[in-house]
Structures are given as structure tokens and as C-alpha cells.
Amino acid sequence: MSYKPFLSKVSDFFKTTLFCRCVCVLCLLFVVLSLSLWVKNTESASDLAKRKATIEQLEKDKEQLEKDKKRLETTPLAYGVTIREKEAAIERAKTYGVSGNIVYYGGHSYRLIEELTDWPIAMIRCELMGGHLWTITSEQEYQSVINQLKIHPQGRYWIGGTDAKREGQWEWITGEPLKFARWLGGRPDNADRENFLEIYSGHVWNDAKPHHEFHYICEWDFEVKIR
């Protein structure tokens, strides 16, 4: 009896089985690889979508911050001055020194600032130099300082009086009530919200709008040493 046909059949069987197994393994590997690529692509698409959403939100936040910045820069602070104007005042005040034409009365110091500016900026600049706009408590103080500073009778000068907090109740920016006054006839009249005090022609006082540009007078509640 010959075993060759039988062995041939067994060999063919194993070859076929091995081939099938290889094919199954390859198919399985293909499926696993496909699933891996699909998961990877899905995750990449998800990450990309999240990244895009984050970038869009950051752009929106940036736009909102720019709007808020512009709004804040133009929002009035004390007495109508804005942040932008205050920053500009600070920069210009850095060039000032408490020096020049300083005069004295009653232990206080006074200086005429020839620069033309509005009332809120004049207020800030005096404060940045360690003082405040001039607050006057007596006729003697008024006449002494005017004469020493040689205030021009036709000039216009900001000083530290206002009724911006409560209409008709004039006070100094230091919080003191305005007891001494040299009002021009018929003033204060609050014509169109004139809430800030100026020395007017003839050395009398007038209530004015804050945006006018006048010279101004700073006061220090101590004797400034000239440097």
C-alpha cells in the first residue's frame, strides 16, 4: 500500500489551513489598523475643532478687551477727566518741578502755571506736584498772592472752587466750604452747567465750563523749598 497519496493530501490540508490562518491574521491586522487610523483621525478632528473653538473665543475676548479699553479711556472719572487725559497729564507733569515763581503766604506756597489747560487737567497737575488748585480763605490771602504772582488784571486763571458735586453749593476741592468770594456781578449763574471757578477780568470770580483752557494757580499747604 502506498502512503504517498495520503501524505500528499495531509500536506495539502496543512498548506490550505496555514494559508487560511495567514489570511485571517492579515485581515485581522487590517481591521485593527483601520480602526486605529479611524480613532486617530477622529481624535485629530476633535482636537482641531476644540483648538479652532478656543482660537475663536480668544479672538472674541481680545475684541471685547479692546472695546472695554477704549470705553474706559473715554469714561469720565472725577470732574469729567478721562483715563487717557489723566495719563497724558501725568506724562506732562513729569517734566515739571516745584520750582520757578514760588510765593508764600501764611506758611503756604503758591505758583502760577503759565500753561493753558482745562480745569480737570489743571487739578490733576497740581496734585501730581504735591499740591492742589488754589483755595482762598480770606481777602488778605487773595490780595497778597495776586500781587506777589503779578496776576494780570485781564487774564483768566483756574482756581480750586467747584459746585460739581451739588449744584449751588460751592466748595474748595480740599473739602472746605467757600466762605470768602469775589464774584463778578450776577455770578454764579450756572449758565449751561458752569461748575468751575476762574479768576476773571479785574480779579473777580466767574463760574465757567471745565473745558476752557486757562492758566492756573497751584497751592501747597506748606512752604516749598525752591530747587
Structure report:
The chain has helices at about 5-75, 85-95, 120-130, 140-150; strands at about 100-105, 110-115, 130-135, 155-160, 170, 195-200, 205-210, 215-220. By secondary structure, it is α+β, with helices and mostly antiparallel strands. The protein has two domains: about 1-75; about 85-220, Mannose-Binding Protein A, subunit A (Mannose-Binding Protein A, Chain A, Roll), CATH 3.10.100. A hairpin with an 8-residue loop joins β4 and β5 (about 170). α2 (about 85-95) crosses α3. The N and C termini lie far apart (about 130 Å). About 20% of the residues are buried.
SSE inventory with pairings:
Blueprint: H1 4-73, H2 83-93, E1 102-105, E2 108-117, H3 119-128, E3 132-133, H4 139-149, E4 157-162, E5 171-172, E6 196-199, E7 205-208, E8 214-220
Parallel strand pairs: 4-8
Antiparallel strand pairs: 1-2, 2-8, 3-8, 4-5, 4-6, 6-7
Helix pairs in contact: 2-3
